[in-house]
Amino acid sequence: MLKEKLKDYNIILASKSPRRQQFFKDLNLDFTIQLKEVEEIYPKELKGIEITEFLADLKSKAFINLTDKDLLITSDTIVWLENKALGKPKNEADAFKMLQNLSGKKHEVITSISIKNNNFQKIISDVTSVYFKNISDEEINYYIKNYKPFDKAGAYGIQEWIGFIGIDKIEGSYFNVVGLPVHKLYETLMDL
After folding, report:
1. 76 annotated active-site
2. DSSP assignment string, 159-191
3. Which residues on neighbouring strands pair with residue 123, listed in sequence order?
4. Residue 161 class from Cβ within 10 Å (0-12 exposed, 13-18 middle, 19+ buried)?
5. Which is nearest to 145 in space by CA: 72, 104, 93, 82?
6. For a tag on the chain, would you pick the N or C end, based on fewer CB atoms within 10 A?
7. pLDDT tens-place string over residues 2-29
Protein backbone atom coordinates (compact mmCIF):
# COMPACT_ATOMS: atom_id res chain seq x y z
CA MET A 1 0.00 0.00 0.00
CA LEU A 2 2.57 2.55 1.12
CA LYS A 3 4.95 1.58 -1.71
CA GLU A 4 2.24 2.36 -4.29
CA LYS A 5 1.34 5.64 -2.56
CA LEU A 6 4.99 6.80 -2.58
CA LYS A 7 5.97 5.44 -6.01
CA ASP A 8 6.69 8.93 -7.38
CA TYR A 9 9.11 9.77 -4.57
CA ASN A 10 12.80 9.04 -4.19
CA ILE A 11 12.86 7.92 -0.54
CA ILE A 12 16.14 8.61 1.23
CA LEU A 13 16.77 7.10 4.64
CA ALA A 14 19.59 8.95 6.37
CA SER A 15 20.36 6.36 9.04
CA LYS A 16 23.07 3.77 9.55
CA SER A 17 20.89 1.96 12.11
CA PRO A 18 20.33 -1.61 10.90
CA ARG A 19 17.06 -1.65 12.85
CA ARG A 20 15.68 1.43 11.06
CA GLN A 21 16.81 0.06 7.70
CA GLN A 22 15.01 -3.22 8.44
CA PHE A 23 11.80 -1.37 9.33
CA PHE A 24 11.87 0.32 5.92
CA LYS A 25 12.40 -3.04 4.22
CA ASP A 26 9.55 -4.53 6.26
CA LEU A 27 7.29 -1.67 5.13
CA ASN A 28 8.12 -2.85 1.58
CA LEU A 29 9.50 0.56 0.61
CA ASP A 30 11.99 1.27 -2.16
CA PHE A 31 14.61 3.51 -0.59
CA THR A 32 18.26 4.45 -0.69
CA ILE A 33 20.53 5.01 2.27
CA GLN A 34 22.51 8.24 2.28
CA LEU A 35 24.65 9.21 5.23
CA LYS A 36 26.11 12.58 6.11
CA GLU A 37 28.22 13.13 9.19
CA VAL A 38 26.53 15.52 11.60
CA GLU A 39 27.88 16.59 14.96
CA GLU A 40 24.93 15.82 17.24
CA ILE A 41 25.19 18.82 19.54
CA TYR A 42 22.08 20.53 20.86
CA PRO A 43 21.46 23.58 23.08
CA LYS A 44 21.74 22.57 26.74
CA GLU A 45 18.40 24.16 27.65
CA LEU A 46 16.46 21.67 25.51
CA LYS A 47 14.61 18.89 27.33
CA GLY A 48 13.18 15.52 26.27
CA ILE A 49 11.27 15.70 23.01
CA GLU A 50 12.84 19.09 22.18
CA ILE A 51 16.22 17.34 21.93
CA THR A 52 15.13 14.62 19.50
CA GLU A 53 13.15 17.08 17.36
CA PHE A 54 16.16 19.41 17.20
CA LEU A 55 18.53 16.56 16.26
CA ALA A 56 16.22 15.01 13.65
CA ASP A 57 15.94 18.47 12.05
CA LEU A 58 19.70 19.08 12.36
CA LYS A 59 20.42 15.81 10.51
CA SER A 60 18.02 16.83 7.73
CA LYS A 61 19.81 20.16 7.23
CA ALA A 62 22.93 18.32 6.03
CA PHE A 63 21.02 17.51 2.81
CA ILE A 64 20.91 20.75 0.86
CA ASN A 65 20.01 19.71 -2.70
CA LEU A 66 16.66 18.01 -2.19
CA THR A 67 14.03 18.17 -4.94
CA ASP A 68 10.25 17.99 -4.64
CA LYS A 69 10.51 14.31 -5.69
CA ASP A 70 12.83 13.48 -2.79
CA LEU A 71 11.54 12.33 0.56
CA LEU A 72 14.30 12.53 3.15
CA ILE A 73 13.78 10.68 6.44
CA THR A 74 16.05 11.50 9.39
CA SER A 75 15.47 10.57 13.01
CA ASP A 76 16.92 10.63 16.48
CA THR A 77 16.26 8.59 19.62
CA ILE A 78 17.22 9.29 23.21
CA VAL A 79 16.60 7.63 26.53
CA TRP A 80 15.25 10.22 28.98
CA LEU A 81 15.99 9.37 32.61
CA GLU A 82 15.55 11.67 35.59
CA ASN A 83 15.58 14.82 33.45
CA LYS A 84 18.73 13.77 31.56
CA ALA A 85 19.28 12.49 28.03
CA LEU A 86 21.20 9.26 27.60
CA GLY A 87 22.66 8.89 24.15
CA LYS A 88 24.95 6.12 22.91
CA PRO A 89 27.62 4.95 25.35
CA LYS A 90 31.23 5.93 24.63
CA ASN A 91 32.73 2.69 26.00
CA GLU A 92 32.09 -0.28 28.32
CA ALA A 93 32.35 1.81 31.49
CA ASP A 94 29.85 4.34 30.14
CA ALA A 95 27.46 1.54 29.09
CA PHE A 96 27.77 -0.06 32.54
CA LYS A 97 26.99 3.24 34.27
CA MET A 98 23.94 3.87 32.04
CA LEU A 99 22.49 0.42 32.69
CA GLN A 100 23.14 0.72 36.42
CA ASN A 101 21.24 4.03 36.38
CA LEU A 102 18.31 2.48 34.44
CA SER A 103 18.08 -0.51 36.81
CA GLY A 104 14.92 -0.54 38.91
CA LYS A 105 13.56 2.65 37.35
CA LYS A 106 11.13 3.96 34.75
CA HIS A 107 12.52 5.94 31.83
CA GLU A 108 11.21 7.25 28.54
CA VAL A 109 12.40 6.44 25.05
CA ILE A 110 11.80 9.42 22.76
CA THR A 111 12.13 9.28 18.98
CA SER A 112 11.57 12.09 16.50
CA ILE A 113 11.40 11.69 12.73
CA SER A 114 11.85 14.44 10.16
CA ILE A 115 10.18 13.92 6.76
CA LYS A 116 11.42 16.54 4.32
CA ASN A 117 11.84 17.61 0.71
CA ASN A 118 12.45 21.05 -0.82
CA ASN A 119 8.75 22.03 -0.37
CA PHE A 120 7.90 20.91 3.14
CA GLN A 121 9.07 19.39 6.38
CA LYS A 122 7.10 17.53 9.00
CA ILE A 123 8.52 16.36 12.32
CA ILE A 124 6.69 13.68 14.31
CA SER A 125 7.60 12.25 17.69
CA ASP A 126 6.71 9.37 19.95
CA VAL A 127 7.35 8.61 23.63
CA THR A 128 7.32 5.18 25.27
CA SER A 129 7.70 4.54 29.01
CA VAL A 130 9.95 1.60 29.88
CA TYR A 131 10.17 -0.02 33.32
CA PHE A 132 13.36 -1.89 34.21
CA LYS A 133 13.45 -4.39 37.05
CA ASN A 134 16.53 -4.37 39.26
CA ILE A 135 19.34 -5.86 37.22
CA SER A 136 22.56 -7.07 38.83
CA ASP A 137 26.06 -5.89 37.98
CA GLU A 138 26.75 -9.45 36.79
CA GLU A 139 23.78 -9.29 34.37
CA ILE A 140 24.90 -5.86 33.12
CA ASN A 141 28.46 -7.09 32.52
CA TYR A 142 27.19 -10.22 30.74
CA TYR A 143 25.00 -8.12 28.46
CA ILE A 144 27.72 -5.59 27.58
CA LYS A 145 30.31 -8.33 26.94
CA ASN A 146 28.02 -10.43 24.73
CA TYR A 147 25.86 -7.81 22.98
CA LYS A 148 28.14 -4.75 22.78
CA PRO A 149 25.32 -2.15 22.84
CA PHE A 150 27.49 0.80 21.84
CA ASP A 151 25.24 1.87 18.94
CA LYS A 152 22.12 2.10 21.10
CA ALA A 153 20.74 5.03 23.09
CA GLY A 154 20.79 4.17 26.78
CA ALA A 155 23.16 1.24 26.08
CA TYR A 156 20.44 -1.33 25.52
CA GLY A 157 18.24 -2.94 22.91
CA ILE A 158 14.79 -4.02 24.10
CA GLN A 159 14.85 -6.74 21.43
CA GLU A 160 18.00 -8.28 22.95
CA TRP A 161 18.77 -10.40 26.03
CA ILE A 162 18.63 -7.46 28.46
CA GLY A 163 15.11 -6.66 27.26
CA PHE A 164 14.02 -10.28 27.77
CA ILE A 165 15.27 -10.48 31.35
CA GLY A 166 15.26 -6.86 32.50
CA ILE A 167 12.14 -5.08 31.34
CA ASP A 168 8.98 -5.49 33.42
CA LYS A 169 6.64 -3.54 31.15
CA ILE A 170 6.32 -0.75 28.63
CA GLU A 171 3.62 1.83 27.99
CA GLY A 172 3.51 2.84 24.35
CA SER A 173 5.11 1.56 21.17
CA TYR A 174 7.57 -1.33 21.36
CA PHE A 175 8.92 -0.38 17.91
CA ASN A 176 9.67 3.14 19.16
CA VAL A 177 11.96 1.58 21.78
CA VAL A 178 13.65 -0.49 19.07
CA GLY A 179 14.32 2.80 17.27
CA LEU A 180 11.42 3.96 15.09
CA PRO A 181 7.71 4.56 15.80
CA VAL A 182 6.75 2.75 12.61
CA HIS A 183 3.00 3.22 13.13
CA LYS A 184 3.35 7.03 13.25
CA LEU A 185 5.71 7.07 10.27
CA TYR A 186 3.27 4.93 8.27
CA GLU A 187 0.28 7.17 9.12
CA THR A 188 2.22 10.31 8.25
CA LEU A 189 3.47 8.95 4.92
CA MET A 190 0.00 7.70 4.01
CA ASP A 191 -1.34 11.24 4.60
CA LEU A 192 1.18 12.90 2.26
Report:
1. yes
2. TSHHHHHHEEEEES-HHHHHT--HHHHHHHHHT
3. 114
4. middle
5. 93
6. N
7. 999 999 999 999 999 999 999 999 999 9
Distance (Å, whole) CA 126 – CA 171:
11
Distances (CA, A) of 82 to 47, 86, 132: 11, 10, 14
Catalytic residue, from 68, 76, 94, 137: name it. Answer: 76
The end-to-end CA distance of the chain, in Å, is 13
pLDDT above 70 covers a percentage of the chain that reads 100
The sign one gets for the Cα dihedral 182, 39, 36, 61 is positive
Residue 133 above 90 pLDDT?
yes
Helices and strands (H, E) in the chain, number of each type: 8, 7
How far is the C-alpha of 81 from the C-alpha of 51, rounded, in Å?
A: 13
Rounded to two decimals, the pTM is 0.94
Average pLDDT over residues 138-158: 96
Pairing of strands 70-81, 84-86: antiparallel
pLDDT at 188: 96
